[in-house]
Specification:
0% strand; 9 helices; 197 residues; mainly alpha
C-alpha cells in the first residue's frame, strides 16, 4: 500500500520538475487517490511535498539551462529583477501566495525565479502555503466530483449529486476556458475555447 502513496509523491514531483507548463500536479494526485482509494490527506501532503521538491529542483537547474539558451544580457536583466524581488520580501511572498492560489500554471514563476537566481527560501515557503490550500481544495473537490458522477452512473439519482456534478463541470470549465491572465492583468473576462492542439 505504501507504494501507491509513493506514486503520488513521484507523480507530483515529475509534473513540477519540468521547465515547461504541464498538467497541474493535483491532477495526478486526484487520479491516484481515486484509482487506489487512498487517504485524501496523506495524498495531499505527499503530493504537495513532491510538487515542492520538483519546483525546488527546477530552480536549481534552470540557471544552467538559461545560460545555454539566452544571451548574457537577458540573464543579467532577469537576475536584476530577482534582486528586486529579494529586497521586497514580504510583498513578494504575498504575490507568490496569491499566484499559487489561482488556477494558473506556476512553472513560469519558478522558471523566472530560477533564471533570476532568486534563492529558493524566498519562494518555497509562500508557494507551500498557496499550494497546500489550492491542492487541498482541488483534490477534495476532484474526489467529491468523481463520487457524485459514480452515484449518477450507478442509477442512484440524487439532487445533491446532480448539483455537485453540475458545479464540478462549471468549475472545470471556468478553469479551462477563462483567459485568467487577461482577467487578472486587464480585469476583462475573456473566454478561450481553443485550448487543444
Amino acid at each position: 500500500m505504501w507504494w501507491q502513496y509513493f506514486l503520488v509523491f513521484i507523480g507530483a514531483f515529475l509534473f513540477d520538475v519540468v521547465p515547461f507548463p504541464s498538467p497541474p500536479a493535483f491532477t495526478i494526485m486526484v487520479f491516484f487517490q481515486i484509482l487506489f482509494d487512498l487517504n485524501i490527506w496523506i495524498v495531499i501532503v505527499l503530493g504537495v511535498f513532491g510538487s515542492i521538491l520538483g519546483r525546488y529542483v527546477l530552480t536549481l537547474y534552470i540557471p544552467l539551462l538559461a545560460r545555454k539558451i539566452f544571451k548574457p544580457e537577458k540573464n543579467e536583466d532577469v537576475q536584476y529583477l530577482g534582486k528586486i524581488m529579494e529586497s521586497n520580501m514580504w510583498k513578494s511572498q504575498l504575490v507568490i501566495i496569491a499566484y499559487s492560489l489561482l488556477p494558473l500554471p506556476t512553472t513560469p514563476l519558478f522558471v523566472a525565479a530560477g533564471m533570476a537566481k532568486v534563492r529558493p527560501i524566498y519562494i518555497i515557503p509562500a508557494f507551500f502555503v498557496g499550494k497546500f490550500i489550492s491542492d487541498s481544495f482541488l483534490v477534495y473537490f476532484g474526489k467529491y466530483g468523481a463520487q457524485r458522477a459514480t452515484e449518477m452512473l450507478s442509477g442512484s439519482f440524487k439532487w445533491d449529486s446532480t448539483l455537485g456534478l453540475l458545479f464540478g463541470v462549471f468549475f472545470l470549465g471556468a478553469v479551462l476556458f477563462i483567459d485568467w491572465r487577461s482577467l487578472i492583468q486587464t480585469n476583462k473576462l475573456r473566454l478561450n475555447f481553443s485550448i487543444w492542439k
